[in-house]
Design a protein that fits this description.
With 229 residues, the chain is an all-alpha fold. The chain has seven helices and no strands. The relative contact order is 0.14.
């Protein structure tokens, strides 16, 4: 049975207060609405009018300012897990993709000899950094999963992961940009189609990582302000 207004106003206020990934937030709001409606229907069955039953259900559920932090914590964990999965899976896959690219390019056996002296050193550094980022993502995923038994403030894990991505991304962009410049200047990498496709895929993955990191920082910036219906 749909609410007459009291429950819907309460749920609307809760939804406006919370910040987080759309789907998990919708699930939490739906769960809260269903719980309120079930309580209201039970109270209505005990003899209360519908509006009285809804007000009583809302009072029993608790003020938004009291329950919102718990809901927000769940959304923070969800956002952190999404970013952690993206790093744990996406970054190593990107590194593997580029290793394959560099093994099949260039076709000329003397092309690498024309590359700058620093090229191999930077390439190895990028590989190591990508694996490190993937490892951090795996640790964060563990911390926001089984590690929650010991970690009392998962919000800080999510925020730290977002800051880590934003700190590492400039380093990756500069390093990969240097590799692209060195290979184009020495061996014509810009004319190599698989390399161009890999570059576009890398930029797309980095963009998604930055967006997710920004969302993590936005969600964990401060405690939720209570919205009034």
């Amino acid at each position: 049975m749909a609410g007459t207004g009291v429950i819907e106003d309460y749920v609307t206020g809760l939804s406006r207060t919370l910040r987080g990934p759309r789907r998990p937030k919708l699930d939490l709001i739906t769960e809260a609405r269903d719980s309120l409606l079930d309580t209201a229907e039970a109270l209505e069955g005990d003899g209360l009018r519908r509006d009285e039953a809804e007000r009583a259900a809302v009072e029993e559920f608790g003020p938004i300012r009291e329950i919102a932090p718990g809901y927000q914590e769940e959304l923070s964990k969800s956002a952190g897990r999404r970013l952690a999965v993206l790093l744990f899976v996406g970054v190593p896959l990107t590194a593997i993709m580029w290793n394959v690219i560099w093994k099949i390019f260039p076709s000329a056996p003397t092309a690498y000899e024309r590359m700058p002296d620093w090229f191999i050193l930077v390439a190895r550094g990028v590989d190591a950094l990508q694996m490190f980022i993937g490892l951090v993502g795996g640790l964060a995923l563990l911390a926001l999963g089984r590690g929650l038994r010991r970690i009392r403030r998962p919000r800080l894990v999510t925020r730290a992961l977002g800051l880590f991505v934003w700190a590492m991304m400039p380093v990756m962009l500069v390093s990969c940009g240097a590799l692209m410049f060195g290979s184009q200047d020495s061996a014509g990498f810009g004319d190599f189609l698989p390399g161009a496709v890999a570059s576009l895929l890398s930029y797309a993955i980095w963009s998604v990582q930055l967006y997710c990191a920004f969302r993590c920082l936005s969600i964990t910036r401060r405690e939720p302000a209570v919205a009034t219906a």
